[in-house]
Amino acid sequence: MTSYQRREQLIEIGRSLFASKGFEAVSVEEIAATAKVSKPIVYEHFGGKEGLYAVVVDREMRALTDTLINALSDPQAHPRQIVERTALALLTYVEENAEGFRVLTRDSPKTDPAGSFNSLLGDISIRVEDILTEAFKRQHLPAKGVPYYAQMLIGMTVYTCQYWADQRKLSKEQLAAHIVNLAWHGLSRMEAKPELRFESDKAAKEAEKQERREIKEIAKRERKAATEES
C-alpha cells in the first residue's frame, strides 16, 4: 500500500469512527487497530487524532459547501425553485455522505481545527437572506425580520435532515417536497405584522376582559332569577 493509499484508508476509517462515536470517544489506538497499523503510522500522517479529524471535517465541509452554494447560486431561478433545489441538494448530500454528515453535526472538539458546521450555516444564511430580501420586497413585507426567517429555514431543514439520516421512511424527493411545502407556503402567506393570537399579553388582557364580562352576565342572570322567584 502506498503512502497516499494508507492516508486515504486512515481518513475513511477516521470518518466512520468519528461518525459513529463522536470525536471524544475515538482514540488513536482504535484508529490504528481498525486500520491494522501501528500508532506511529497515524501520527506520521496526521500528527494525532486532532489532525485526522481536521482533514475529515475539512473534506466534508468543502463538499457540502460546494453542494449548497451551487444550489443557491442561480440568480435567474424562481425563489421556489431555489428552495426546492437547496432542500434536495442537502438531502442528496446526506444520502450519499451519511457518515460525513454525522461527523459535521455531532459534537466537535472544543477547538475545531477545520472550521465548524455552524460557521458553514452562517455563510449559507447570508445567501438565504439575499433571496428572502427580494421575496419580502415583492410581498411588501418589512425586511428587518429577514435574518431570523433565514435562520428558521436553515434550522428547520438541517434538523429535518438529521432526523431523516436515521429515519428514512420517505424518499429524499418526498421529504424535500414536505420541507418546501412548509417553507414556501409559510413564506407566501406571511403577515406584515405577525402577533401571537393566544399567548401574548394582549391576548391575556382580552381573556381577562372576557372572563369579567361572563362573570357579570352570570351575576345579572342570577339577580334576575332571584327577582322573578320573589
From TrEMBL:
The keyword Transcription applies. It comes from the Bacteria. Keywords: DNA-binding, Transcription, Transcription regulation. Residues 27-46 bind DNA. One of its GO terms (molecular function) is DNA binding. Residues 4-64 form the HTH tetR-type domain. InterPro entries: DesT_TetR_C (IPR054129), DNA-bd_HTH_TetR-type_CS (IPR023772), Homeodomain-like_sf (IPR009057), HTH-type_Tx_Regulator (IPR050624), HTH_TetR (IPR001647), Tet_transcr_reg_TetR-rel_C_sf (IPR036271). Residues 198-230 are annotated as: Disordered. The keyword Transcription applies. PROSITE patterns: HTH_TETR_1, HTH_TETR_2. PANTHER family: ACREF/ENVCD OPERON REPRESSOR-RELATED, ACREF_ENVCD OPERON REPRESSOR-RELATED. This is TetR/AcrR family transcriptional regulator.
